[in-house]
Structures are given as C-alpha cells and as structure tokens.
Amino acid sequence: MLTRRSFLQSSAAAAALAASAGSARAETPGVTDTEIKIGQTMPYSGPASAYGVIGKADTAYFKMINEMGGINGRKINLISLDDGYSPPKTVEQVRRLVEEEKVAFLFNTLGTPPNLAIRQYLNDSKIPQLFVATGAATFSDPKHFPWTMGWQPNYQTEAKIFAQHILKTKPDAKIGVLYQNDGFGKDYLIGLKDGLGADHAGMVIKEASYETTEPTIDSQVVTLQGSGADVFLIAATPKAAAQAIRKSYDLGWNAVRYMTDVSQSIASVMKPAGLDKSKGVITAVYGKDPTDARWKDDAGFKEYAAFIANYMSPNDLIDSNAVYGFGASATMVQVLKQCGNDLSRENVMRQAANLKDLELPMGLPGLRINTSPDNFSPIRQMKLASFNGESWEQFGELLMG
C-alpha cells in the first residue's frame, strides 16, 4: 500500500522520467512527435543544374509519403536548398540547415566537391550525411567517416566494368579519357587503370581534364581525337557530356564511346547532344530505363509512372535523374521505417547500415541493396547498356567491378 509520501515520490519519479524522455526526444534536432526535418543541397542553378530534377523528385516522393500518413505518424519535412554546385555555397547552406533550420540529418546532397566540403563538419558534429548523390568511392569509408554513406555504385566500380569490357572486346584499344578535374573525374581514371591492370596501363594514351566553369570542352575532344585514340571514355557531368558526344560525332571520330552513368539522362544529355549523334554510346545501368518498352507492364515501372503522373510533370518520366531521386528517397524511407520511434542520429545511422536485400521498384531485376557497419556501398551491381537512338538497350549480365 502506497503512503502519501511514497506516492508523491513515485509520481515525482514518473514525472522526471517523462521529462527525461521528452528531453531525449528534444536532443534530436528536427524530430518531433509529428515531424522529421531533414536537409539537402542541390544544384538548382549553375553548371550541374540538370541534376536539380533529383531534388524535385525527392521533394515529390516525400510529399507522396506524407499524404499516405508519413512514417510512424511523422511527416517528412525536406528542406532543399540551392548551392549552384559551388562548394563554398554548399558549406554556407549546410551550416544554415544544421545551425538555423535544426535538421535531423542531411540526405542526398549532390556532387563530389560539395560533399567533400561538408563531410568533415558533419562527421565532427555526428550528423548523418546519408545517401550522398555522388559515386565517389571516398564516400563509402565507414572507418574514417562513420557518419557518411553513398548510395549509387561508385565511379571506380563502373570504370572497372568498362575496363573489363574494353579488354574483352578491344584488347588492342587506344583509350582517350575526358574527365572533370575533381574527385568525380579522377575516380574514373583510378578505376579504369585498376581495371586494366599494370600489364595494360599503356592502353590509356591521352587524358584531358576540364573545369565545371568552362563553357565548352570542344578543344579537349579535338585533342583526344588527335591522339589517335579509338576508345573515348567520357567522365563528365550532363552539360559537358552532351557536348562531348556531339563534338566527337561532328569530328567524324569513330571511337567506341563509354560514358558515366551519371550522365545517361535522355532528357538532359542525349537529346541535347542529338539522338542520332548519341547512337552507340555505352554506359552502365543499375535501374530500369523508363524509355525501354520492356518495362511497360512491369509492376515497379507502373509504380514509378503513377508517382510521376501524380507528383511531377510528364517530361520527368523519361529523365533518369527522376528515377534516381525516386530510388534514393525510397531507400531513405525504408531506413526511417526501421528506426521506429528511435530517431536519434545514432539510430538513423545504425539502420542505414543495416539494410537487408532491399528491392527498389525501378532497380534492375536481381539487384538488392545491402549495407552493414563495414559496407557503406548500398548498390554494387551494374549492367552495360548501349544507346540505340531512342533508349538504352541492356546487354550481358549484372556485373560487379
């Protein structure tokens, strides 16, 4: 039987416990009983503005989830800010998101240089930097940066797959490489040379870099053609990639052209380059191409098409950047579902590193997302595809670099 004193003591203890529980919730900025506030930077302007569709798709996807009731009763509030693909601007915007907007974590911030500029700050602050929109291998380094995780296959993986294909189909190739002069482009050089191996390193006969601020890369393409290369690897973001495809065609350069998967958008690369001029370009894919008729009756494609019809514009349907945002956002939602009511930054990161055989609606058949505390590379399989003038035609099997 409780005395009045013991009753008051137990009531006080209960109140203290409730208060501590409330303060524990308050310790995760951006998380309330009704909301999860997350942040993002995206190049809605500047040289990489074609990627802005990814941010629009992320925003639209979370709107759809919120209209379905949110995650465990909480709505997702994505604050997506323009950084113009400029690292100093990224730093400024991320500090605003963390210190003023009080977001719980960062999601799908885009670009290799922008993400490198904020990675140390976020890791020092123990703020998740999840599913960064770049394939640079350095963002899958849990030992040194345990709060940062990639999403797409890394660039070195893709370049190794290209190298394997070149060795198999053109063992006497002379390779010319156009690459963006930063961590993104340099990763392709590393992966290509690793894939070729020491015995074949001499196959790369010419390299030409460009800065994102350059209005055109025509002179670099002319230089690469003049080297006598008969394989042309394009490690460039959309604007420069479209220029490289167009210029190489206009020069009458009959090299076999390989291009990074981050520039495979038909809407923002192949059409501006010229569909006829893009024929034969080879890339690597890990998702379903929305222009490929083989998927028209596929359940995953129908889910994607319904999302586009309800939350985006008809023009976005064929943009691979929209497919990218759709997949990355679905992965983020799965992580939040696994978190339950524990939305501490530690648990968000723990669940991101505990994805098991996750299948995405627009992922290739057989592709599964898996992560662990020592595996921060969610997607590691790709398939080669060739552009036929209208869509990407896949060939071969799922490969790992």
What's the gyration radius in Å? Answer: 23 Å
Strand content: 15-25%
| Oligomeric state as shown | single chain
Total number of helices? 12
How is the largest sheet built, in terms of strand order?
2-1-3-4
End-to-end distance: 69 Å
Helix-strand string: HEHEHEHEHEHEHEHEHEHHHEE
Tally of separate domains: 2
- The CATH architecture of the largest domain: 3-Layer(aba) Sandwich
What is the tally of beta strands?
11
Q: Low-confidence runs (pLDDT<50, min 5 residues)? A: 1-25
> What is the SS-derived class?
alpha/beta
Overall pLDDT? 92
Outline:
The chain has 401 residues and is of the alpha/beta class.
Describe the structure.
The chain is α/β, with parallel strands linked by helices and 401 residues long. The chain folds into two domains: 35-153 and 297-380, 3-Layer(aba) Sandwich (Rossmann fold), CATH 3.40.50.2300; 155-285, Response regulator (Rossmann fold, 3-Layer(aba) Sandwich), CATH 3.40.50. It has twelve helices and eleven strands. The protein has a four-stranded parallel sheet with strand order 2-1-3-4, sandwiched between helices. Strands 6-5-7-8 form a four-stranded parallel sheet, with helices on both faces. It has a three-stranded antiparallel sheet with strand order 9-10-11, with helices on one face. Helix 4 links the parallel strand 3 (105-107) and strand 4. The chain starts with a helix and ends with a strand. Mean pLDDT is 92; it is low at 1-25.
